[in-house]
Amino acid sequence: MTARPSPTLLRFGLAFAALGVAFAGALLVMAGQGLGWALIALGLPLSGVLALAGDALGPQFARVFSERLADLLAQTRPWMALVALYAALKIPVPLWPEGFPVLGLASTVALCLAALAFVWERAGGVRAGLMLAVAFLVGLGVEVLGSRTGFPFGAYSYATAPAPTLLGVPLMVPLGWFALTLTATCLSGGRPWLAGLLMMLWDIGLEPLMTAQRYWLWHDPLGLWAGAPVQNFLGWWAVGTGIAWVFTGLAPRLFGLRTPEWAWALPWWARAFPESREPRLSLLPGRGRRAPDFRVAYPIEAFFLPGGLVLVGRPLEAAVTLVAMGAGLALARRVTRHDR
């Protein structure tokens, strides 16, 4: 007897398949084939429809879709809309390759704002501001240090990075440290070591893509993957783990942790700003034990990042990235299966 996939897995699988149709259309457009536009026009809206009601294909589909759409719209919050914008800004990249710096920065800003809005709504503005400040400053600091000294990532340079930059570092990089670490910490259930590992697996795809776009260039003699040495990935794990540790101290309940009312990292002057005790948000229909949250950014990136590598002519790197991030998702699911 064959086990049937869960409704959520079925919806996601069908939605990603529809996105694959749109992606194939983008490849055709790049090859000068007009048919590609029709595939894009079909695949994009179909992916949204299937994400809502892909598990209800059949006579009940129209009713289930309309009910779930109404439910989703009623519960949509600003952070959800910003996550959708972040994903939407990735779609035009293959049709406007020279606009990658603009679209990449805009997408990262949208994801960063989504992360800020998510924490603000769930844990309050003080914690949201502190988490953004910590991640941005730490991320900027390690990138300035790393690009100038080779520690902690190895020998690399931002000399060819497109504007805007801050202290020689592309602005999207420290913004990314906040948003990416937040989604990894949510996905890990508040386990800093696992959040750091998820960040490291993410970087497996970022390295070949961003070096292809000349955001940074490696000149490390021990380069192993897209010019990056093993030291780089250990550095990503360490920095990601450190930022995630601060996040869990600032807002433990945000990640489902059962800790004293005020965690170690919360300064005395912020204690008048309590966290929300009962988050009421939902990105997809259903009321499981664990409410969907900002972790949704990781599987979205697991789809688009390998796709971007295919578009820049790196199919092997795309396959490795897909396997690595897929393994990260599977590990996080297994480790956190008994949470809450």
From TrEMBL:
<feature type="transmembrane region" description="Helical">
    <location>
        <begin position="37"/>
        <end position="58"/>
    </location>
</feature>
<feature type="transmembrane region" description="Helical">
    <location>
        <begin position="236"/>
        <end position="255"/>
    </location>
</feature>
<dbReference type="Pfam" id="PF04240">
    <property type="entry name" value="Caroten_synth"/>
</dbReference>
<feature type="transmembrane region" description="Helical">
    <location>
        <begin position="79"/>
        <end position="96"/>
    </location>
</feature>
<feature type="transmembrane region" description="Helical">
    <location>
        <begin position="166"/>
        <end position="187"/>
    </location>
</feature>
<keyword id="KW-0472">Membrane</keyword>
<feature type="transmembrane region" description="Helical">
    <location>
        <begin position="102"/>
        <end position="121"/>
    </location>
</feature>
<protein>
    <submittedName>
        <fullName>Carotenoid biosynthesis protein</fullName>
    </submittedName>
</protein>
<dbReference type="InterPro" id="IPR007354">
    <property type="entry name" value="CruF-like"/>
</dbReference>
<feature type="transmembrane region" description="Helical">
    <location>
        <begin position="12"/>
        <end position="31"/>
    </location>
</feature>
<feature type="transmembrane region" description="Helical">
    <location>
        <begin position="194"/>
        <end position="216"/>
    </location>
</feature>
<keyword id="KW-1133">Transmembrane helix</keyword>
<feature type="transmembrane region" description="Helical">
    <location>
        <begin position="128"/>
        <end position="146"/>
    </location>
</feature>
<keyword id="KW-0812">Transmembrane</keyword>
